Amino acid sequence: MEIDMEVNQHTEGPPRKKTRRLPDQSFTQKNLTSLPYDILVNIFKHLDLKTIGICATLCSTLNNVSKDSSLYQKVALKYNMNREFLESFVSKISYPKELCIEYKFSENHSDYEDFSEFDKHVRIALTKCGEYVQSIRIDNCRNDDILLLLSECVNLKELTLYRCKSSFQSLTSITTLTSIKYVSCHFPQKIASEAIKNNESLRKLYLSDNTNVNVNEICENLSRCNDHMREIYFSERKKLRAKSLRTLGRLTKLRSLALVSGTGFECDPEDSLEQIAAGCSKLERLIIYGWKEINDDNLMPILHMCTQLRELDLRGLNITIRSCREAALSLPFLKTMDVIKCNRVKKSQLAKLKQDFVEIDIPLE
């Protein structure tokens, strides 16, 4: 009986206060540097360059992580980077795949900034890492010595030049490119054509508003030497002749063709679009912008033969709603059709077409 009373006293008394469990002392002392190296590298991949630089100053462990080459697969060198930061940054990169070099160019052509310090670091980067780089973009460079270093990039696949000017002699020695993009560059005569011609594995070509670029010669060279072409974008000053345009019909693997505005396309297309349609029947994207000589009759062969088309941009043509409706009816994979700047196509007609073909994106304005 006494035993039972003792049990009751313990069970029926006030609840005992739970003892707070202190965290493991070893756990509280853990910090970022105790993580495995691979995990730290993955964390650093989500940081910008400035933050990585700050972390590198905190301790030797994070400094070593900041030097891991995998953090610098995509490298951007900009003229306005801090001098000390730029020097430290260039010293760390070793195996980059993509390199972007950005200069500042004054609108006043007679007033150039002194880029000698920046040039020094660009030169080091190209010389040290050139054989590993596969993609390069260079903006606003006027230094021939820097552009000549492109010859160091023996495995280069993609090249973008924006507002650059030099002799471009190194371009003619590059034969590994699959993608070329030249925008607002000033080339010596024939250099651009030769550079394109020498890259037989070229798949993507983008040319816009360059000086001394002959699109007629380039079209003919592409048809003879670059049968792997898949994407072409032309928006150049040189007048494009129907004879040269016909030769693009030999590029049977072409998937995207853009002939964009400007005086370069103010000419009679004759039967060139029909020739392109016959040879490039697997086109998926067609942009013809501002070519007023193209009418319903010129365009119909493409609408009937290029049945894989998914995107049509026909702004500024001399077509009527007849071509628009024919495209909607004939192209089973069509997703987008833009004809808003065609003067002979009324907005009310487009609205009706949009209502009839709701699966196609047809802008009204």
What this model shows, in words?
Helix 11 (242-246) links the parallel strand 7 (231-235) and strand 8. This protein has an 11-stranded parallel beta sheet, with no helix packed on it. It has 15 helices and 11 strands. The chain is α/β, with parallel strands linked by helices and 365 residues long. The chain is globular and about 70 Å long.
SSE order and pairing:
Layout: H1 2-12, H2 25-28, H3 37-44, H4 49-56, H5 60-66, E1 74-78, H6 83-92, E2 98-102, H7 116-129, E3 135-139, H8 144-148, E4 158-162, E5 179-183, H9 191-197, E6 204-208, H10 215-225, E7 231-235, H11 242-246, E8 256-260, H12 272-279, E9 285-289, H13 296-305, E10 311-313, H14 321-330, E11 336-338, H15 347-356
Parallel strand pairs: 1-2, 2-3, 3-4, 4-5, 5-6, 6-7, 7-8, 8-9, 9-10, 10-11
Helix pairs in contact: 4-5, 6-7, 12-13, 13-14
Strand ordering within the main sheet: 1-2-3-4-5-6-7-8-9-10-11
Number of helices: 15
Binned strand content: 5-15%
Distance between the termini: 95 Å
- Structural class comes to alpha/beta
Shape: globular
The major sheet is characterized as:
11 strands, parallel
- Uncertain residue ranges: 1-11, 25-29
Summarize model confidence as the mean pLDDT: 86
Order of helices and strands: HHHHHEHEHEHEEHEHEHEHEHEHEH
**Number of strand elements:** 11
Cα Rg: 31 Å
DSSP helix fraction: 25-40%
